[in-house]
Amino acid sequence: xxxxxxxxxxxxxxxxxxxxxxTELWERFSYYAMRGILVFxxxxxxxxxxxxxxxxxxxxxxxTFTALVYLTPLLGGWVADNYLGQRKTIMIGGALMAIGQFxxxxxxxxxxxxxxxxxxxxxxxxxxxxxxxxxxxxTMVGDLYQEGDHRRDGAFTIFYMGINVGAALAGFVVAWAxxxxxxxxxxxxETVFVENWQAGFAAAGVGMVVSLIIxxxxxxxxxxxxxxxxxxxxxxAQSQTQSKEPLTKVERDRIKTIMVLGLFTIIFWxxxxxxxxxxNLFTNEFTDRSTTGWFSDFLxxxxxxxxxxxxxxxxxxxxxxxxxxxxxxxxxVRLGKNEPNSPVKFALGLVLLAIGYLFMIGAVLEMGGxxxxxxxxxxxxxxxxxxxxxxxxxxPIGLSMVTKLAPLRIMSLMMGAWFxxxxxxxxxxxxxxxxxxxxxxxxxxxxxAMGIFAGIAITSVAAGVILYFMADKLVDWMHGAEDKxxxxxxxxxxxxxxxx
Length: 500
Hints:
This protein is mainly alpha-helical and 500 residues long. It folds into two domains: 1-233, MFS general substrate transporter like domains (Growth Hormone, Chain: A); 248-500, Up-down Bundle (Growth Hormone, Chain: A), CATH 1.20.1250. It is 72% helix and 4% strand. It has helices at residues 15-43, 55-71, 73-84, 86-105, 115-143, 152-180, 197-223, 231-241, 249-272, 278-286, 293-303, 316-335, 342-367, 377-405, 411-433, 442-478, 492-499, and strands spanning 9-10, 13-14, 183-187, 190-194, 287-288, 375-376. A hairpin with a 2-residue loop joins strand 1 (9-10) and strand 2. The longest helix is centred in the C-terminal third of the chain and has 37 residues, at 442-478. It is globular. The two termini are 20 Å apart.
């Protein structure tokens, strides 16, 4: 938020936008590469360079990790705003994330007897580093433009593409790393291939280092003074003139709307975030990923095996977003006055999530209770498609609603509360996924997965129906922020802050 603006444009936008685009692309690559293999590393046998945890314990930790990822940005934003400025905070956060990735990537032979300690040190560094990095990179995108600059929305669209390109790339590259550097070993008289999870984490670390190098080399040239001065210093005079007043009835009603939608947000993200946990395990254990023909030959050349790597499915969500986000946006525009309001969009998102889980139920039913059978991978493709459609209906609305409805004097507090909802959703999602069982028989795990998928689907539909019938009342509580047939205009910046 500096008065000194960077020089130079590219495709009609400041060159600094493309610097931040590239920085965020590689940071998101690093995060999603690590997230995609975390559960596999935890559940792999100790003799195969894993930690030997049960699926339930691994999914529980996964939920805790992703919950903290949404809590620590509150700290990162406060540090940047009050002490360091965004640029320094991003560099420190990025360095911590790179250190965390390489700590987890350390071969067990390097730290005999201390594997768990090193793992937790790495995970803690990742969580803290993410908190410092996450809230500040997208803020600097907005600071590239003056108030009222019509290019701002387009800028966040470009930046948002960087997020999803990085996420999509992660699944493919990390799969190449852990298969290319994997090895064969004899277990109980049989030769088995052991994925090198440490190589995957190292690839994620390299991505983070690339992000840091790009930011270090080009920030001064393309960002000028943006992000160097803490926001609190720039707004101190304005803050001193603001007087504290009690909340009005309108403000209280709008806060109630935020709280109610927050509760439904928990249900959606608790189901959606099974993607990196339970659905990831299901893909690995119960899905037929074999291929034939030229694609099989390509996989053998790339990875050494004719199976689709599990982490490739983690890239489907990001790919679907890149492809279909403009389509969904154009649908809302074409609907005009018939465009549904925000609570109805939330409800639609929940129903689409449930439809996605119908595909997962179909995958289990195809196996007929036989854990040695494999379900078609197309069930997963369908599930990820509908989950992404649900995300596109719900995710752009959340932070937008907070910024439109929260009283200005408690905006930061309400934003923090919204992040708490998402953090709670991730932890609850981990607990729900852990119901698959603590190392039981595969048949038991398959039956438990069926119950979890069905439970999430039923809960999501019920929540969507309830929210649909509450929609008019919630719009009334908004007191003019939007009407019953048309939602508030969503900000690309808010969408990016949720996805980043």
